[in-house]
Amino acid sequence: MMSPNEKNKLKLRQICFIFLAFMPVTKIALLPSVLAGFCEERLFVATILGFLLDIGVLLCCMRLFYKHQNSTLFNVLETNFSKTFAKIVYFGYGVYFILKAIVPLLEQQDYVHNTLYEITPSKLVFIPLFIVSFYQSLKGLKVLGRSADACIYLTALGFLLIFFLSIPEADFTNLLPIIQKPTYKPVNALFKSIMWFSDSVYLLLFLGHFEGEKRQTLKLTLSYLGASVVVILFMITFYAVFSSIANSRFFATPELTIYTLVDSVRFDYVAIFLLMFSQVFAIILPIYLSTKCFERAFALKKSLVPAIIINAGLCIFSIIFSGKLFKVLGVISNYFGYVFIFFGYVVPLLLLLIPKRGKNEVKA
Question: Residue 59: which pLDDT band, with cuts at 50, 70 and 90?
């Protein structure tokens, strides 16, 4: 993705924190109601299926790590095919990451407008996010690691508060019967919500930018599994609270805790703000990676041009489509689902077919 110098080095701990801090917070607003609309009390089954696929992709990425001696994805593609082919793949991933950022971006915009404001604010109120995103896009990978180091504690505390406030209101019998005759509904629900999953593909772009250490595959898998368990528990609690009306509760986090008062104080806002801070950096993550992919695809020396174009483009997009989240979601779900499947799951699997080359072997 970038030259493997010091500013582009990540620690394995930071990659684990990226999964733990950023992956769960993008799945706790609209996704629970979307899954509930497709498969009701089995929304957690669709979530489990999605995370099983994601962990499979993570294992594919780590297999590439060992197979190609911790080379970057670009170097692997260039060595085995050509630089042009590598640029095409990176261009494809650049587009993919933009698509991956769109729904969480509009979702967060609506979430902020409906949670923090009593009247609809100016459409320009979201511009500071793009200023932060633009700034980060000019930096090396280290900025992601440092963001994760800070956000991991906020995410953990935010979820602890959410569970503490919402579980007493939950009726887990709403999830019964757990064992039913299998149907296609959870699978269909997963396909329609696939843009919220496939986060483990980020690891493809981290290859070659972190040093190997003992039990690294286990550590990464456990971190992703831990984040997955948090989201699954959130889904279960969400349906246990709202049951048959869960599909109409579009912003799950404030909805779960709105009825909980402790001495007439809305402690749920503490959890909301903690998670919202992490959500900002979680949304920026695919924007950042898209910038770096286009930088590599067009052989640019710096990220300035793609950072300006992508962030300005998404800013304009968010202003034009403000309040039109469900229309955009419908278009992406109906017409771009296979794009997410291809780049999120098929490509990592195909990369395993690339043969291992010796240190002195050259491409014919």
Answer: very high
CA 51, CA 74: separation in Å to the nearest integer? 26
Residue 363 has pLDDT above 60, yes or no: no
Q: Are 204 and 348 in contact (CB under 8 A)?
A: yes
Segment of 15-24, 101-110, 208-217 carrying the highest mean pLDDT: 15-24
Q: State yes or no: pLDDT of 190 exceeds 70.
A: yes
Cα separation, 131 vs 134, in Å, equals 5
96 inside domain: yes
- In this structure, what CATH number is given to the domain that contains residue 17? 1.20.1740.10
Contacts 24+ apart (CB under 8 A), 200-203: 200/19, 200/54, 200/55, 200/57, 200/58, 200/61, 200/224, 201/57, 201/61, 201/343, 201/344, 201/345, 201/348, 202/18, 202/285, 202/289, 203/15, 203/57, 203/58, 203/61, 203/62
Whether the full predicted model's pTM is greater than 0.85, yes or no, is yes
The pLDDT value given to residue 1:
44
Q: Could you report how far apart the first and last alpha carbons of the chain are, in Å?
A: 24
CB 231 within 8 A of CB 27: yes
Q: Which domain holds residue 128?
A: 7-351
In a domain, 361, yes or no: no
Q: How far apart are CA 106 and CA 185, in angstroms?
A: 26
Q: Name residue, tokens 């489990």.
A: 48
Pick from 96, 305, 292: nearest CA to 205 = 292
2 occurs within a structural domain: no
Which long-range contacts does 176-180 make (Cβ < 8 Å, 24+ apart)? 176/41, 180/42
pLDDT digits (tens, 9 = 90+) for 88-105: 999 999 999 999 999 999
Q: How much of the chain is helix, strand and coil, in % rounded to 5?
A: 75, 0, 25
Per the domain annotation, does 363 fall within a domain? no
Burial 96-130 (b: 16+ CB within 10 A, else e): bbbbbbbbbbbbbbbbbbebeeeeeeeeeebeebb
Counted domains in the chain: 1
